[in-house]
Amino acid sequence: MFAQVVVDIEHSKIDRIFSYMVPDGMDAAIGSRVLVPFGRANTAVEGYVLGFSETADIPPERIKRIHRVLRKIPEFTENQLKLAYRIKDAYMTPLVTALRLMFPAEMRGERVSELTRRYVALNLNPLDLMAAKESLVAKDGKIKAPVMAGILDMLGETPTALTALTDTFPSAASAVTAMEKKGWVITFDQETGRNPIKAISPHGDTDFVLTRDQINAIEAITKSENGHFLLHGVTGSGKTEVYIRCIEHCIRSGKTAIMLVPEIALTPQMIAMFSTRLGREIALYHSQLSAGERYDEWRKINSGEAKVVIGPRSALFVPLKNVGLIILDEEHENSYRADTHPKYRTHDIARMRAEIEGARLVFSSATPLVETYYEARTGGLELLSLPKRVMDLPLPDVYIEDMRKELREGNRTIFSGRLYDALVETLEAKKQANLSINRRGVSAFVMCRGCGHIVRCDDCDVSMTLHNRDAHGTLVCHYCGRTKPYSNICEKCGKPYVKAFGIGTQQIEYQVNRMFPKARTLRMDLDTTRTKDAHADIYRKFKNGEADILIGTQLVAKGLDFENVTLVGAMAADISLHFPDYLAVEKSYALLEQVAGRAGRKGSGRVVIQTYKPEHFAIQFAAKHDYIGFYEEEIKQRQQLSYPPFGTIIRILFAGTDEAQTKAACETVQSGLKNALAAHRTDILVFKSSPAPIKKIMTKQRYQIVMKIKNTEDIETIKQKIYAELKNHQFDTVNFGIEINPPNMV
Ligand code: ADP
Ligand code: ZN
Which ligand has the nearest atom to the CA of 327? Predict the structure, then answer.
């Protein structure tokens, strides 16, 4: 018998299937990882079995044999293989690149190839450990055996998987052997690993009556066999309860479910709630697990033990069988777009997987993507609405504060009068406050502090970004590459108040401490949440009342449910409105709505939005909690500018060490595309090449072609022609790749 094998080498030139002989008695299956001789030198490389046949396409005397099967259980299911083929076609990637999405990286290279795993445990008391560490230091202070020293530092109270050590130190195995001889460590093999779902007190009372809207949504989803839905429910409308009931229904009928959540929403509280409700049948799958934990969870899924998988976008690729339901919670979140190659949208892959599995698909959000809502309006998705909060809890009152006016009236602080007074009141009443700032505010756009005018690109109607802030500065449009010199004189009102924006959490904390010296503050941002448990720690401290004011990026707005918080301040709420991408307005709206939905979840609360653009419709509608009003306005603008869903933005990015070669490659492809698309000229609204906004990243020069194409019935043909044309080009020294509707362009 012969096996079709794809080798695990990521290169378009060897993106083909090779036939190998399966020796008698070898236990290979579709999805098996195998070791095969490859190339003229017969180097042993890893590959995957894609199928079997009785005949081979090359003469029997030339066919090579599979060396061995590396792991008994297959790496991927047949449905995953189908998914990989669809990803290959949709994103022009080699098949192995698509297959690599299907399992944790640490499983490649035979690093975790055994079913049992080897653990390393420290065998020293604290005094001996110190002595051991000292013995590794030479007289001159140099470390004699840095790997051993590093491993001693890594080993803690609980045994560590050897794979976790080799992830950090490739030569860990031999160092561990040496250390075992010295008696410093012991090693042992263990079948199963730890359970990453840590014991947390049970959470989630269920003795409530479902609302009529919840019942309708649950019925619609469970009664359909493979329907596609948009669940649109305001914050606090009980969407999570809908997921849980649908998942339970799914398990009862013998199927499984995948629930995707944004990475930052995977809080211990949320995990605890799901594990209380759904029991031990859930598996967690995300990047914060250690290599060993992730492998254990993967096995639990692969063996069929787990019936529900919860995780961020990578959880969509798990080897779960018999999938009956796929949910994307908070479907508007940016983390559903992959930022490494292939740059997929999770929505698209979820749809592929749902089709392959015959599963139901639910996109869910309080603030759906405009594109998703448009699809629901035009019949592509069934719309299910939860327009009211459970138990008729009111939404908080929202105040919009015009920071231009504050400045005119002499207030130069970062707090509007209203926010300042509200903070004073909140502190006096021994309640808590949240101050949240847009994370994207760290980057710089320029605005006139006198009139609120933002410098925009004439062609694209997006704000321009300040580059080279410390020199004179250049304004760059991230869509077409147009540049303008930066000046502090406003082009609209002529006053010298144009300034680069971008305030951070640290600055806010500093100002709070200065103006409210008695208030106790906590800060939650990327800096303070680097370690694994930091997020949970800050959460716990705030919940326990150890601080009065929690300051943070939008992290704070997510998944947090504090009963004692009666005031939320959104600082520089409009910063992201002016970001140079077509998603900027809806992102700002979503953020404000999330923030505005937080205060006083269990009662009333107050939200203060501080902005330089109070009249902007996104801010006005967010203050009224009116998503549909917002949608109607935004979709009009998208139509006028031919942005998605009415147009498609395509960027082809070139990167090479040599600038002239990179530019030349870009121009060659552009003229090729011009010819290939000659028949579609009227559908192509923008077609420009230019240096990329960030001209050099990691010593690579970058050039780009940007196209904006009307979405007519020809759009698929046009895309196919672009793909076909790109396949005609290959450069030795320049790489290039295509992005469709990129969420940002740097
Ligand atoms: P969403 O995800 O829509 O923002 P949640 O699912 O977090 O809202 O629900 C908010 C709170 O309401 C949760 O504590 C949940 O347990 C509770 N809840 C859900 N459904 C009901 C209901 N029908 N009656 C009362 N409380 C409910
Ligand atoms: Zn001005």
Answer: 1
Residue from 214, 235, 241 to probe ligand 1 pocket by mutation (most atoms less than 8 Å from CB):
241
What are the backbone angles phi and psi of residue 590, rounded to the nearest 5°?
-60, -45
Q: Which of 623, 639, 655 is the last residue of a domain?
A: 639
Among protein residues, the one with the nearest Cα to ligand 1's atom 17 is 238
Query: How many angstroms separate the CA atoms of 580 and 684, rounded?
Result: 21
Whether residue 390 has its Cβ less than 6 Å from ligand 1: yes
Residues 569 and 652 occupy one common structural domain: no
- Mean pLDDT value across the chain: 85
pLDDT tens string 591-646: 888 877 766 555 568 899 999 889 999 999 999 989 999 999 999 999 999 999 99
Partners of 119 in beta bridges: 161, 188
Atom 14 (ligand 1) nearest CA: 204
Task: Specify the CATH number for the domain of residue 27.
Answer: 3.40.1440.60
Q: Residue 385, SS3? A: strand
**Residue from 205, 208, 267 whose mutation best tests the ligand 1 pocket (most atoms within 8 A of CB):** 208
What local confidence, expressed as pLDDT, does residue 477 receive? 72
Query: Does residue 123 form part of some domain?
Result: yes
| Residue 247: count of CB within 10 angstroms of its CB | 26
**Are 307 and 363 in the same domain?**
yes
Residue 486 covered by a domain: no
Q: What is the pTM of this model?
A: 0.78
593 Cβ below 6 A of ligand 1: no
Domain that residue 287 falls in? 212-392
Assign 200 a pLDDT band (cuts: 50, 70, 90): very low
Tokens of 742: 């990129």
Q: What CATH number does residue 587 fall under?
A: 3.40.50.300
Q: Are residues 142 and 103 in the same domain?
A: no
The verdict on the CB of residue 569 being under 6 Å from ligand 1 is no
Interval 486-513: pLDDT, tens: 888 998 999 988 877 656 676 788 889 9
Counting residues of the chain whose pLDDT is more than 70, the rounded percentage is: 88
* Ligand 1 pocket, residue 269 CB under 6 Å: no
Q: Report strand pairing: 498-500 vs 521-524.
A: unpaired
H or E stretch covering 86: helix 78-91
Q: Are 141 and 263 within one domain? A: no
pLDDT at 202: 45
Report the alpha-carbon distance of residue 489 to residue 473 in Å, rounded: 13
Closest CA to 83 of 334, 246, 323, 260: 323
pLDDT, position 438: 67
DSSP string, 465-481: EEESTTSS-EEE-TTT-
pLDDT over 60 (residue 205): no
233 lines ligand 1 (CB under 6 A): yes
Kindly state if the Cβ of 238 falls inside 6 Å of ligand 1: yes
Whether the CB of 117 sits within 6 Å of ligand 1: no
Which residue minimizes the CA distance to atom 15 of ligand 1? 238
* Closest-approaching ligand to the CA atom of 449: 2
The reply to whether 103 and 233 lie within a common domain is no
| Mean pLDDT (whole number) for 264-289 | 80
Determine if ligand 1 sits within 6 Å of the CB of residue 602.
no
Q: Whose CA is nearest to atom 10 of ligand 1?
A: 236
Could you tell me if 447 and 441 are in contact, meaning their C-beta atoms sit under 8 angstroms apart? no
200 located within any domain:
no
| Rounded distance from Cα 285 to ligand 2 centre (Å) | 49
pLDDT of 446-499, one tens digit each? Answer: 888 888 888 887 766 667 877 665 556 778 776 667 788 888 899 899 998 887
Q: Which residue has the higher pLDDT, 148 or 438?
A: 148
Q: Strand (E) positions, 330-411?
A: 360-365, 382-386, 397-402
